[in-house]
Design goal:
heterodimer, A: about 325 residues, mainly alpha, ABC transporter involved in vitamin B12 uptake, BtuC, two-stranded antiparallel ribbon, two-stranded antiparallel sheet, 4 strands, about 75% helix, disordered C terminus, B: about 525 residues, alpha/beta, Rossmann fold, 3 domains, 6-stranded mixed sheet, 20 strands, about 35% helix
């Protein structure tokens, strides 16, 4: 039986979990499991956002700043006495405005995504600094803090439920809708999709909008959990999310990538980060370990692709 | 000393499940131009890859260079024996200079910290270019050269490596007619200097122009080697396919009906001008002309991916506007591009995903979600009706042969149920068997009431399939011929001379590019 890339990754996640359960004291304690579940959603959502963009062959370097700006939007509403719902709506609108701008420049003007989002990363950061003057905004209502800190039905963290819901939505959108199909097809060969009557620019626009929506959800969870927002909200997740998407099997050149793979990758990151902490590793050492694992897995992917390619050239030779 | 530069004996190659080569022989004499021919899938590329050291043959194969037995296990072994291979999609470094490209690999044994000897680089390049008598500045970067010039640089590189045997894989497929002529002269020159050439091409006329001998492969088996004098085109085709094949005439089987499609005053600066024509129900309209005459630009303008400056379209008498390819699909216009692998298909994706791509919106169920079942059904339907092989709907399109890929592209557009189908070079790079099938299919579609516009450079194809022929020249329609009166000579005359009477034989000489074809 041949396992898919994603199933292999799932097994690795399981193995990591079991290994740490054995060697890291307190890894299985309900306290620890809970804290992992609270930490995972905000990063998971950013990683999914990044993955969707990478499937088109692009990248969104502004994604965490979109999240931060969106968080600022929510914070401004909350601190000015508005309720939770208006705050959430404003957070989403802020993010969508950023996404629309990225989408417009990428799809209509045709500038390469890495350049556009590098520019907007600085742009959004500047806007946040102008609004916040560099300090943090904090002190939100009790109710709002429940989003990131509360439990669903008193059992599991609400935020992980939100994450699960959006992971499922993303999976359905990508695999079951004509937009999702077009995203993969565009990522594989954008000329062919153009010549097939696909509205490339519309597909791309929706990709950047959807990524920014996920960033907004992540921002809402983060601001709620930290009870404050600053310009660097979630900024450490930026490159980690690229790493998680790629570790999850997403092809950095576009055309392939699955939600479940990214979810497994995010889980692996979470387990290791948490487990090593429990084992008393210094946090800088944790980064070293995660970096090493990432390179190992990518090297393995590279070689397995290479062997596949060799097999394919043989097949091609057969055909010729 | 042997009279042969290369002898490959009893070469077999087994890939898992398939015997790609079965006891193939290839003997190339010194200084001869040797044509290697066979249908797609006959084993030419595999044989060349074995010669290049990329594939290893099954045990039992023997190689002799100048009479001496040799082993080729890796590419460098072949290079050291004086074998140079010029692949179809050249392998130059676009942002290095011509001289650097010619020199590269020469001192691969040198220690990496040794200084580059620019003088010897320049000398090597100058010498090689001089030998070819070509006028290319060795200091220009390669990306600024035309494809033809780049090819010459590859040949110069082969000379710099003191190649004794140069393999050219479809060298003329991207060249204009005058460039092709120049290449022939270079080939003649090389062979007169004792360098042997293996020439791979699908264009039989071209092969007769340059080759001294032919080796024919069929289905991985060696058919035979023949002197150019003892053989002709019909015979070669017969040897390649094992049966007599010429294009069957696909004559009209239904009465031509009403006008279903009209193009009026299409104009785009630098592309085409004053284009007006109409298409009747049941008719196949052929459009031909030299490469660069604006045919493809016109087709893409109708399809909405190359916006015209002005002009109007009518389908069934109703004026329509097409602003994008998506618009075109909606209005019932389909375009099958010439570049099957880059524009026609998403190669990594399955046959199913490719076929449903233009009509994803029609593949949705009540919940607006894609209905995989109807997608699979659709794909299976076209795999069956077009006889795509292998009939595996989940297979990536990249795994299909050229002919079958083209069938998938056709299936994809038939699924969109177009009223007008424009097909650009429908049988480019496809073997003869599949060609005839596609010709028949185009006729069948016309019978069914789809307006078919076929663009082709291959005149026998135009004559075999069309009911009416438009000839383009410099972006204008220079002539229109009914099929009864159309001949290759007349078409060529329009393609070259805008209909004026000039010496047609002279014209023919200049257009090897459009007159050739298997």
């Amino acid at each position: 039986m041949k396992l898919s890339k994603e199933s292999v990754l799932g097994l690795i996640a399981l193995a990591t979990f079991l290994l740490l359960a054995v060697i890291a004291p307190g890894f299985l304690s309900s306290n620890n499991i809970n804290s992992m579940m609270f930490q995972l959603p905000e990063f998971g959502l950013i990683a999914l956002a990044m993955m969707v963009v990478i499937v088109t062959g692009g990248i969104d370097l502004s994604i965490t700043y979109i999240a931060a700006l969106s968080g600022v939007g929510a914070a401004l509403m909350l601190t000015n006495g508005y309720g939770i719902l208006p705050a959430i709506i404003v957070a989403i609108l802020f993010a969508l405005a950023c996404g629309a701008f990225n989408g417009f420049v990428v799809s209509k003007i045709g500038v390469s995504p890495i350049l556009v989002t590098l520019g907007t990363m600085v742009l959004f950061e500047g806007i946040i600094l102008a609004i916040t003057k560099g300090s943090s905004i904090s002190g939100f209502s009790e109710g709002y803090s429940l989003i990131g800190n509360g439990y669903y039905l008193g059992l599991v963290p609400l935020s992980i439920v939100i994450f699960a819901v959006f992971a499922i939505i993303t999976a359905i959108l990508l695999s079951k809708t004509s937009w999702g199909r077009s995203v993969y097809m565009y990522g594989s060969n954008e000329t062919a999709t153009l010549f097939s009557g696909v509205k490339n620019s519309r597909v791309l626009m929706k990709v950047y909008l959807y990524a920014s929506l996920l960033a907004a959800i992540s921002a809402i969870i983060m601001t709620s959990r930290y009870n404050s927002v600053k310009v660097d909200l979630g900024s450490s997740y930026l490159l980690q999310s690229v790493a998680a998407a790629v570790l999850g099997g997403t092809n950095i050149h576009g055309g392939y990538g699955k939600v479940i793979g990214t979810v497994y990758a995010v889980m692996i990151f979470q387990f290791i980060r948490n487990g090593l902490n429990l084992l008393g590793f210094h946090s800088s050492l944790v980064d070293v370990v995660i970096g090493a694992i990432l390179i190992l897995v990518l090297a393995m992917n590279f070689f397995s692709d290479k062997f596949k390619k060799i097999a394919e050239t043989k097949n091609a030779g057969k055909a010729a | 000393m042997s009279e042969y530069i290369l002898q490959m004996k009893d070469v077999s190659k087994t890939f898992p499940g398939v015997k790609a080569l079965d006891n193939v022989q290839l003997e190339v004499k010194k200084g001869e131009v040797h044509a290697l021919i066979g249908e797609n899938g006959a084993g030419k590329s595999t044989l060349i890859k074995i010669l290049a050291g990329i594939h290893k043959p099954d045990p039992g194969a023997k190689f002799y260079f100048e009479g001496e037995e040799a082993k080729i296990n890796k590419p460098i072994d072949a290079t050291l024996k004086g074998v140079s291979i010029i692949y179809q999609d050249l392998s130059l470094f676009p942002n290095l200079s011509v001289a650097e490209n010619i020199y590269i690999g020469q001192d691969s044994n040198k220690k990496p910290w040794k200084k580059i000897n620019w003088k010897s680089i320049k000398k090597t390049a100058d010498k090689a270019l001089e030998e070819l008598e070509v006028d290319i500045d060795p200091n220009t970067t390669v990306e600024r050269l035309s494809i033809a010039q780049q090819q010459l640089v590859e040949i110069a590189r082969a000379l710099a490596f003191e190649a004794k045997l140069i393999v050219m894989d479809e060298p003329t497929s991207a060249l204009s007619s005058s460039e092709v002529e120049k290449l022939y002269k270079v080939v003649d020159k090389l062979s007169s200097r004792g360098i042997s050439i293996i020439f791979i091409s699908h264009k039989l006329k071209e092969l007769f122009r340059v080759s001294d001998r032919f080796t024919v492969l069929r289905d991985g088996k060696y058919v035979g080697s023949y002197q150019a004098e003892e053989i002709d085109e019909a015979k070669l085709i017969n040897l390649m396919v094992g049966r007599e094949v010429s294009y069957e005439k696909n004559e009209k089987q239904v009465e031509t009906g009403e006008v279903i499609f009209q193009v009026k005053d299409f104009y785009k600066q630098g592309n085409f001008k004053d284009i007006s024509f109409s298409l009747k129900k049941g008719e196949v309209l052929g459009i031909t002309g030299l490469v660069g005459s604006g045919r493809t630009e016109l087709a893409q303008a109708i399809f909405g991916v190359n916006k015209p400056d002005s002009g109007s379209l009518k389908i069934y008498g109703k004026e329509i506007r097409i602003r994008s390819s998506a618009d075109a699909v909606k209005k019932g216009v389909a375009y099958i591009p010439e570049a099957r692998q880059t524009q026609g298909l998403v190669l990594e994706q399955s046959i199913i995903n490719n076929i449903s791509l233009p009509i994803l919106n029609r593949m949705r169920n009540k919940l607006k979600l894609l209905d995989r079942k109807s997608e699979v059904q659709l794909a299976e339907q076209y795999i069956k009706s077009l006889d795509v092989r292998p009939a595996l709907p989940n297979l990536p399109a990249s795994k299909l042969s050229g002919g079958n890929q083209q069938k998938v592209v056709i299936g994809k557009w038939l699924s969109a149920q177009p009223k007008i189908l424009i097909i650009d070079e429908p049988t480019n790079g496809i073997d003869i068997g599949a060609k005839t099938e596609i010709h028949k299919l185009l006729r069948r579609l016309a019978n069914d009431g789809i307006g078919v516009i076929m663009i082709s450079s291959e005149l026998p194809e135009i004559l075999a399939v069309s009911d009416r022929v438009l000839v383009m020249r410099h972006g204008r329609i220079s002539g229109e011929l009914g099929i009864q009166e159309a001949t290759q000579e007349k078409i060529m005359n329009y393609a070259l001379n805008s209909g004026s009477k000039k010496n047609p034989s002279e014209a023919l000489d200049d257009t090897s590019r459009i007159s050739q074809g298997v």
